[in-house]
Design a protein that fits this description.
EXOC6/Sec15_C_dom1; Exocyst complex component; 26 helices; two-stranded antiparallel ribbon
Length: 794
């Protein structure tokens, strides 16, 4: 229960007073008397409380007197002691006062010094804090100056590093609030400025590299062309060395070339620093993904623009710059891929290449389809193949480009054949078909040795008359250019071994162009000259021989060893075609010769077939037949022997002799010859002897050893000779003997003997008186008897 409650419980009805024991207990315990006082005032009876307190005091005074009385002596002593102590205390107080006074005097000085020291320590602390703040601010300002210097000198990476240091190390502890706020505003501004600067440099680089890509591509393609030329030179020397070793030559020269063995891209100088810097700075700014996308989109736009062909120039004029631009583009992209540290991925580079090559193939197919000149197509193809070789070095797949070139193979050769067809036709139309005369050694080298047309290995005397006309070397040059152009197109394409293709197209050209042109010339109605036909046949023979050179030349250009194309398996099929066409030329020539012989033999109709005198024997001219026949025969034989091969010469001469023999027989059988006598037969005998002597003396030795199975040329006069022999025989009836007939008269038809024998006439009557006339009359009877027997057998 609280003290307030105890006070309230005392009294009756109104609070008579405070409990004395409670009040005494509270005073004795040192408790607070406030509750008692508050209660007294609340009840409105403070006098009662005062009365109680006075009563308590009096009570306690009585207790003190009792206690004092009980301890009086001790108290007196204590008081005395206290008085003594008081005196000492006064003395001590005086001493202390004096000491205090002195201490105060000394202490004031020390306190002043202490205050000064404390003030100095405060100043020092403030100064140290100011110095530290100044150092931080100075360092920040120094960094700001360095940032400005780096930005002014385009050293953006150090500037960004300095900004990072300010932001990371200084701004959290920077005491200068104004400077901190300034930095918070300016650091993003500086970074944005750096970003703009490097992006501007990068955009400038994009403009520059597009204009430089063409030069880069041209230089790289030029290097590929030089490398190709060196490879061809090396292969040429290797083939030459192989030929020398096969021929047994001991003078072999070995050359080790050290120049350009390690040619690389050192000459391809282009600056990628802006790209590296822009990518690095954007990486430092945490914007590498955005920059990669920015780079890819811009380069993709440039590529799409580069893939557009020029409308102001023809593709033939602009194709080199077009492909060089694309080559330069992808060479740059290869360098970026390999050195830019992840700016471009292989997948994205491949994406650019696939889009480019698909567009290039479409452009090439379209432009190739428009071209109608083989030289134009070859020019573009060569550059495309160099483009492929260039980009293949950088790992790009150029198969689709080579496939487009392969699809253009047939069209190119069709255009090439059409062009060479015009040239061949012009050469054949402008040739005079006369044997070619060469006055100088260089002409011989250029027209004969260059195509292996020589018949002997010794240089001939000049002037030299060739067996062919100007058509042959001109056509050989055309064929050689065809081979070289064909090899140029097929080389460095999709085929490694393209000799068979070259050979196929070469055969096609020789058969469909050269051979057909010669056949048209041979079959032309305008061809009326035997000499021209003979020269054409001779030309065909030489061109057939030149096929071996064509095959070897094609193999040489294709890098095929000569030994692999030697023999019948390596020969051109056109060679057999030209050989067969020669037969057509020979037949045409023989037909013209026969026509000319017929013209001459027509003169036999106006000669006297019943002369009165025996003809004189002559060795150099005809006695009965027109002498023009013999003269023409001599000229044909001499010309054909000079320019035609032995087989053709044999065929021509044998055909002429056979036709003369047939003409003689037809003359005897002709209705225009009503009668003839023995003197006419003697004249024919003399003429046949002249022809037979010419055949034996002039011709037989030329063909006997060179034409397998050749018969003596005079055997082609057999029919006329046997008929003359029969009429001049002393016993013509021996013809009826089968053995003799088979041996001496096997070429004669009994029906012809009957018809001709009926025309046999007696000599004039004035001759009958002599003995010789008697023999003739007797022969007439024998001939009549033979005819009668033959009629009976028939």
């Amino acid at each position: 229960m609280s003290k307030g409650k105890r006070v309230l419980e005392n009294g009756d009805g109104g609070m008579a007073g405070v409990d004395d024991s409670a009040l005494a207990s509270a005073i004795g315990n040192g408790e607070d008397l406030a509750p008692f006082i508050r209660a007294a005032f609340e009840m409105g009876k403070p006098e009662a409380l005062v009365h109680q307190l006075k009563s308590f005091v009096k009570k306690k005074e009585v207790e003190i007197e009792d206690l004092c009385k009980l301890h009086y002596s001790e108290f007196i002593r204590a008081v005395d002691e206290l008085r003594y102590v008081l005196v000492d205390a006064d003395e001590l107080k005086a001493g202390l006062a004096e000491e205090n006074k002195q201490l105060q005097v000394v202490g004031d000085t020390l306190l002043q010094m202490l205050d000064a020291l404390i003030q100095s320590h405060g100043t020092k602390k403030n100064l140290m804090q100011a110095i530290d703040s100044l150092k931080s601010c100075t360092a920040v300002v120094d960094l700001c100056m360095r940032v400005n210097e780096h930005i002014m000198s385009d050293s953006y990476y150090p500037a960004l590093k300095a900004l990072d240091i300010m932001e990371r190390d200084f701004m959290p502890v920077l005491p200068a609030r104004a400077l901190r706020l300034l930095l918070e505003r300016q650091i993003p501004v500086c970074r944005a400025h750096i970003e703009r600067k490097v992006n501007k440099e990068f955009n400038d680089w994009l403009v520059h590299i597009r204009s430089a890509s063409r030069e880069i591509g041209q230089l790289s393609i030029g290097q590929a062309s030089s490398a190709r030329q060196r490879e061809e030179d090396v292969r040429g020397r290797q083939r030459e060395a192989e030929e020398q070793s096969r021929s047994g030559s001991k003078e072999l020269v070995y050359i080790l070339e050290m120049d350009d063995l390690d040619e690389d891209d050192s000459q391809l100088k282009f600056d990628l620093t802006p790209v590296y810097r822009a990518y690095h700075i954007n990486t430092c700014l945490g914007m590498q993904d955005q920059f990669r996308e920015h780079y890819f989109k811009n380069r993709q736009l440039q590529l799409n623009s580069d893939l557009q062909i020029s409308t102001s120039q023809s593709f033939l004029e602009s194709h080199q710059s077009y492909f060089a631009q694309l080559a330069g583009f992808f060479i740059v992209e290869d360098h970026v891929l390999r050195s830019a540290g992840g700016l471009m991925s292989s997948a994205r580079t491949e994406q650019l290449w696939e889009s480019a090559i698909s567009k290039m193939t479409v452009v090439m197919e379209d432009q190739f389809s428009r071209m109608q000149d083989a030289s134009h197509l070859l020019l573009v193809k060569d550059y495309v193949s160099l483009l492929g070789a260039t980009l293949r070095r950088y790992g790009y797949q150029v198969g689709p480009l080579m496939e487009v070139l392969d699809t253009m193979r047939d069209k190119y050769h069709e255009l090439l054949i059409a062009d060479r067809r015009h040239r061949v036709n012009d050469v054949l139309a402008n040739d005079k078909y006369e044997q070619m005369r060469m006055r100088k050694e260089y002409e011989y080298n250029m027209n004969v040795l260059a195509f292996h047309l020589q018949t002997v290995d010794v240089m001939p005397a000049f002037p030299y008359v060739a067996p062919f006309s100007a058509t042959v070397p001109e056509c050989c040059r055309i064929v050689r250019s065809f081979i070289e152009d064909s090899v140029s197109f097929l080389a460095y394409g999709g085929h490694i071994d393209y000799y068979d293709l070259v050979k196929m197209y070469l055969d096609k050209f020789l058969v469909t162009v050269l051979n057909e042109a010669l056949l048209r010339l041979v079959r032309s109605p305008a061809l009326r000259s035997v000499e021209q036909a003979m020269q054409i046949a001779a030309n065909m023979t030489v061109l057939e021989t030149a096929c071996d050179y064509f095959a070897h030349h094609a193999a040489k250009l294709c890098g095929i060893p000569t030994r692999l194309v030697q023999g019948p398996h390596g020969a051109l099929s056109a060679q057999a075609t030209l050989r067969n066409s020669q037969a057509v030329a020979h037949d045409t020539m023989i037909k013209l010769v026969k026509s000319k012989v017929e013209e001459c033999m027509n003169l036999t109709l106006i000669i006297n077939w019943t002369p009165d005198e025996e003809p004189e024997i002559a060795n150099d001219f005809m006695t009965t037949l027109p002498n023009d026949v013999y003269i023409y025969f001599q000229s044909i034989a001499q010309t054909s022997q000079e320019i035609l091969p032995p087989t053709a010469f044999y065929k021509v001469i044998s055909g002429v002799l056979e036709h003369i023999s047939t003409s003689i027989m037809e003359t005897f059988l002709s209705e225009d010859v009503k009668r003839f006598n023995i003197y006419a037969v003697m004249g024919i005998d003399n003429d046949l002897k002249v022809l037979e002597a010419f055949a034996d003396d002039k011709c037989q030795t030329s063909v006997q050893d060179m034409v397998p199975g050749a018969q003596p040329l005079k055997s082609f006069l057999a029919e006329a000779r046997q008929m003359v022999n029969l009429f001049m025989a002393t016993q013509p009836d021996l013809y009826l003997n089968p053995v003799i007939r088979e041996r001496n008269y096997n070429a004669l038809d009994p029906r012809d003997i009957i018809l001709i024998g009926e025309k046999f006439k007696d000599l004039p009557d004035k001759m009958f008186g002599g003995g010789r006339g008697g023999r003739v009359v007797a022969k007439k009877r024998l001939i009549d008897a033979l005819i009668k027997r033959l009629k009976n057998e028939a």
